[in-house]
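Service request form, structural biology core

Requester: graduate student, group of Dr. S.
Request type: structure prediction, single chain
Budget code: on file
Notes: please return the result as structure tokens.

Sequence provided:
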Amino acid sequence: MNRLFRGIAAIVAGTALFSGTLAAGPAIAAPAREGLQKALDDAVAAGAPGAYAAVLDENGGWHGQSGVGDVTTGGAPDPRGRFRAGSITKSVVATAVLQLAGEGKVGLDDRVQDRLPGLLPYTEPITVRQLLQHTSGIPATDRWNSLPEIDTTRWQHQSPDETIRKGTEGKPLAFPPGQGMVYSNTNYAVLGKLVEKLTGDGLNSVLQQRVLDKAGMRDSSLPYRYPYVHHAAARGYERLYGPDAPLTDVTDYEMSRFWGSGNLISTADDLNRFYGALFTGRLFPAAQLAEMRKTVPSGVPGVDSGLGVMRLRLPQGCAAPEAWGFNGSVPGYNTWSMRTSDGARQITVGVTTNLTSETARSAVLRAMFAEFCG
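Core staff response, request fulfilled:
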């Protein structure tokens, strides 16, 4: 398992929310936000410089924050500001692919080798669906060899073709396609190339027009090479040179290596708008939404992998039986954006350290469960 699913596994193993110890009973009413605010405060106490959240429910919206948005100025985080949303990009890319499938331009069970001849070094047939669901067998690849490299290489450009080559060259499939599940960013670099070939336009432009604009995500973009986050919710930090070293500000970053897999800049409100539009069928027909929601086990109890989305099965006593959405994880930012299956409640929550603080990653996930399960 990669970092994302290892992190979920740690929470699943360590929290009573998945242990069966909650009392049985009806779904809880929309709570006061004291619990969620405490969870944000706990995330800061766990080592994140800042934390923020935006909630939508039947009573309207709520925004909260804790800590600082900039360690040099001490200003508070802006829960309506922008941040790097990481792998939530995958939900956006998957939406565009499913739109194209609904238009008859590609089949989910089409072979990638037929659509993009010569791109992959494998003879085993890999389908579009398998890329979307991480069942292709393409192995997971670490993007850095060491923590300091996150800092020293952040201005280096990496083309999509180079990303795919580094993710596949000399690396056999982890399993025959369709016979396992391993989360790999390379899958979505390949899907980005597919979207460009099918549309004849650049991926960033396609996603902006087909998904972000259509969902009303007015403060979101896919910058590809542009390294800055304007009007940031908070700046992102990591301890890259040891646990006792000063924080390194990694907000400014040339994120081309995450072109199709993690390049989205967004806001908590925009991500709530996106998943609201997605799961109410406003971005593609019901048939494509049904395909997106077909899941396979992730290997973590309570977590299943759909086509660019994740399902969390919630214990009895929570606000709903399950929640759908995704997690984003890049240097300086860890984000969860999830919506209950009945659509009554949605939260986007983030912290401003990620790769070097497992406790902060755990805390942001606990904040999400504080909203769904009290």
